[in-house]
From TrEMBL:
Signal peptide: none annotated. It comes from the Eukaryota. This is Putative juvenile hormone-inducible protein. PANTHER family: CHK KINASE-LIKE DOMAIN-CONTAINING PROTEIN-RELATED, PROTEIN KINASE-LIKE DOMAIN-CONTAINING. Coiled coil: none annotated. It comes from Anopheles triannulatus.
Length: 164
């Protein structure tokens, strides 16, 4: 089916994300490609998109900065519709932002250099919609596990060793 891209996944959002999460205060977006990051129905509370952003870092001192590419995952939790009030009641967005902006960095520090605990949160906002923009771990070779299968013993042991 056709992909409907929300209007708020715009250049301003990408510029804020580059500045906040990647320390690129002055950038020029060359192009962007937005795709669905999950299949329809995979996420009950959110819509998830993958955005490949091609940009030029205008903060660089070089005369002709080479274009760079970053891949982002955007999790959108709608403010309206049937899901909005439930998200509000559960405080789901606030909890997730706290987890990724405060807890995950501490857990990542415990894992140590070279270790990866979770995707980095580059930017979170509530306007015009609730959104969290993450590092795209797919570019590092990670894949999404089958959530219906659950974790096997080896993966559970790995998590326990990392946080233990």
């Amino acid at each position: 089916d056709a992909l409907t891209v929300p209007e708020y996944l715009d250049e301003q959002l990408l510029l804020k994300t580059l500045a906040s999460g990647l320390q690129v205060p002055r950038a020029r977006i060359v192009s962007k490609q937005i795709t669905r990051a999950t299949a329809n129905g995979d996420n009950y509370m959110s819509d998830v998109f993958r955005i490949e952003v091609h940009f030029i870092n205008e903060s660089d001192q070089a005369e002709s900065a080479a274009p760079q590419t970053v891949s982002l995952v955007v999790k959108c939790l709608p403010n309206s519709g049937q899901r909005g009030p439930l998200i509000d009641e559960m405080r789901a967005f606030e909890k997730e932002v706290t987890m990724f902006q405060q807890i995950v960095p501490k857990l990542s520090a415990m894992v140590g250099a070279g270790g990866l605990f979770a995707a980095k949160c580059y930017y979170a906002t509530t306007t015009p919609e609730r959104m969290i923009l993450f590092e795209d771990l797919k570019t590092l070779g990670f894949v999404t596990a089958n959530r219906h299968a659950g974790l096997d013993y080896d993966h559970c042991e790995l998590v326990m060793r990392k946080i233990g």
